[in-house]
Design goal:
There is one protein chain. The protein is of the alpha/beta class. The protein has helices at 39-42, 90-105, 126-133, 149-158, 199-212, and strands at residues 7-9, 28-30, 59-62, 67-69, 77-83, 112-118, 143-146, 163-166, 173-176, 180-183, 189-193. The strands form 3 sheets. Strands 4-3-7-6-5-10-11 form a 7-stranded mixed sheet. It has a two-stranded parallel ribbon with strand order 1-2. Strand 5, helix 2 and strand 6 (112-118) form a beta-alpha-beta unit.
Length: 213
């Protein structure tokens, strides 16, 4: 089952599940108090009043089995994306696009890290994340994070990321939001990166953010 692609409704207070993509109905996600009308299409910076609404403390485990927290984001620009390794389409496509965007950044890529947070802690062990992120199409040195169901839920809540298990048995899927968050080197929210951006557009937006500091 493909993961959910989302847009946003300003002024809502909590995430909402959506119709499958095949219904061709609008796919909407409520994102806290962020004023993000039209944001999914352009990825532009949200109003300053909404910055504190995205991000916050978390405690997870990286692909090497080491415990990490929100200080992981300090010192580099971070592209934070919630997904899962068994995702058939959205996640590999997004990570491949981010990999191309990192290449377009050239030397500036050393100041950017991609952080992939699993929303499937039942299957996504540190070892599974490490194998998955080793794909040459994905960003080099991408950080994979997982944890207990409660830890993952807390991280997703801090980032206003939607996810929900779909189906039963070993072949279940997970519906999830399909955007990424650009966080600055202080670990603060800068902007959303929509799922449909090209590598060139992502590289431009990251470069713009880096110039603005």
């Amino acid at each position: 089952m493909p993961a959910t692609i989302v847009q946003f409704v300003p002024g809502s207070e909590s995430p909402m599940p959506f119709e499958p993509q095949s219904t061709r109905r609008p796919l909407l996600l409520a994102l806290g108090g962020l004023a993000v009308a039209g944001l999914a299409a352009c990825g532009e910076r949200a109003a300053p009043a909404g910055e504190a609404a995205v991000g916050g403390p978390f405690r997870l485990v990286n692909q090497d089995g080491r415990a990490v927290d929100q200080t992981l984001l300090l010192g580099k620009w971070s592209v934070v994306f919630f997904g899962f390794t068994f995702c058939p389409d959205i996640c590999p496509a997004t990570l491949a696009t981010l990999g191309q965007a990192m290449g377009l950044l050239g030397p500036r890529a050393k100041d950017v890290q991609v952080v992939f947070v699993s929303v499937d802690p039942e299957r996504d062990t540190p070892a599974q994340l490490k194998t998955y992120l080793s794909s040459p199409a994905f960003p080099r040195n991408a950080v994979g994070l997982t944890g207990s169901p409660d830890q993952v839920a807390a991280a997703a809540k801090a980032y206003k990321a939607y996810y929900q298990k779909s189906g039963t048995g070993a072949d279940y899927s997970v519906d999830h939001s399909a955007y990424a968050y650009l966080m600055n080197p202080k670990g603060r929210y800068d902007r959303l990166l929509a799922q449909n951006l090209t590598p060139e557009e992502i590289a431009r937006q990251i470069s713009d953010a880096m110039r603005r500091g």
